[in-house]
From TrEMBL:
Protein's organism: Alcanivorax nanhaiticus
Gene3D superfamilies per UniProt: 2.60.200.40, Probable inorganic polyphosphate/atp-NAD kinase, domain 1
Highest classification ranks of the organism: Bacteria, Pseudomonadati, Pseudomonadota, Gammaproteobacteria, Oceanospirillales
Keyword terms: ATP-binding, Kinase, Nucleotide-binding, Transferase
InterPro entries attached to this UniProt entry: ATP-NAD_kinase_N, Diacylglycerol_kinase_cat_dom, Lipid_Phosphate_FormReg, NAD/diacylglycerol_kinase_sf, YegS/DAGK_C
Any GO molecular function: kinase activity
Keyword Nucleotide-binding recorded: yes
Location of the DAGKc domain: 1-125
Domain of life, source organism: Bacteria
A cellular-component GO term for this protein: plasma membrane
Protein name listed in UniProt: DAGKc domain-containing protein
PANTHER family per UniProt: LIPID KINASE YEGS, SPHINGOSINE KINASE
Length: 291
């Protein structure tokens, strides 16, 4: 098996020792490995697009942002592997991928492929989720220095700093053409969010549809109730939260320069045009993964 390993040395504050163990195990399993260290944002995508032969599998070693950039550069038919060394690693939770480097390498070489349908936000693929409103403000306001040193704490601090703004901005959404309003929205491909929290029980990453969660009531109290419900995996059931399955979603707002987040990183500004990608991607998972 020929494997390209894309390592983001900035993800999760750097995990060089884990990378070495991961690559050593791949080689012990007779894989031929080409290793690449990324140098900055979008370098993974650029590097992959410049490679004529990416091998049988490209493994993203980093967080969801690294996987996103690999996904946007991977050639059709080449399998995507993930060794999660980032901060939140939501995709790894969704696919029940092992944390230990040796076990993660065995999944890549000895596991199976499942077909996952990403979605496209303004033309660029995302694999887990994108969001506008509160969700995007939090990602936009994360202090990268704190994130590098203290990981998820940076998100918690950013969440606190943005709470007061919730409800100020109203967004217009079209879910498969149906017009709706909201004060925040998350378009998710999978069930998990922010790590191991369950955002949507309705979502299914193996299905060629996304789940759209619309937060339709204003007010800080409503947001706090939503965040509490998220801790218990019950946000989708809340009065004021609409959860809809869709193939195409557009989101816009009349005023302001509003950010969007995709797979946990800033992803441009509104308007957002989100469509399910017609080309599914083979992704390596454990043999025991229930598909
Ligand atoms: N050499 C580099 N130096 C700085 N940033 C980089 C480098 N290579 C890639 N990046 C950027 O780092 C960003 C963050 O990486 P990533 O999202 O994978 O890790 P994380 O934020 O720690 O994890 P998670 O998304 O799971 O919370 C990526 O979006 C990528 O653009």
């Amino acid at each position: 098996m020929n494997i390209t390993v894309i390592y983001n040395p900035a993800a999760g504050g750097g995990r060089e020792a884990l990378l070495c163990r991961f690559v050593a195990e791949l080689e012990r399993l007779n894989a031929r490995v080409t290793l690449y260290h990324t140098t900055g944002p979008n370098d993974a995508t650029r590097y992959l697009q410049s490679r004529e032969d990416q091998g049988d599998c490209v493994v993203a070693v980093g967080g969801d942002g690294t996987t996103n950039e690999v996904l946007n550069g991977i050639a059709p038919g080449v399998a995507l592997g993930v060794f999660a060394t980032g901060t939140a690693n939501v995709l790894a939770k969704e696919l029940a991928l092992p944390k230990k480097p040796e076990a993660a390498a065995r999944v890549v070489v000895q596991g199976k492929s499942v077909m996952i349908t990403p979605a496209r936000l303004n033309g660029r693929r995302f694999i887990m989720m994108c969001g506008i409103g509160y969700d995007a403000w939090v990602v936009d306001a994360v202090d990268l220095g704190i994130k590098e040193r203290f990981g998820k704490l940076a998100y918690a601090l950013s969440m606190l700093s943005q709470i007061r703004r919730y409800g100020e901005q109203r967004y217009r959404v079209a879910v498969d053409g149906r017009p709706l309003d909201c004060f925040s929205a998350i378009v998710t491909n999978g069930k998990h969010y922010g790590g191991s929290f369950v955002l949507s029980r309705e979502a299914n990453i193996l299905r060629p549809q996304v789940q759209v969660l619309l937060f339709q009531k204003p007010g800080v109290r409503f947001l706090l109730r939503c965040l509490t419900a998220l801790l218990f995996g019950r946000m989708e059931q809340m009065d004021g939260v609409a959860s809809l399955r869709a193939e195409q979603v557009t989101i816009s707002c009349e005023t302001g320069d509003e950010p969007i987040q995709a797979d946990g990183d800033p992803a441009g500004r509104l308007p957002a045009d989100i469509v399910v990608d017609p080309e599914p991607v083979p992704v390596r998972v454990a043999d025991t993964f229930n598909s």
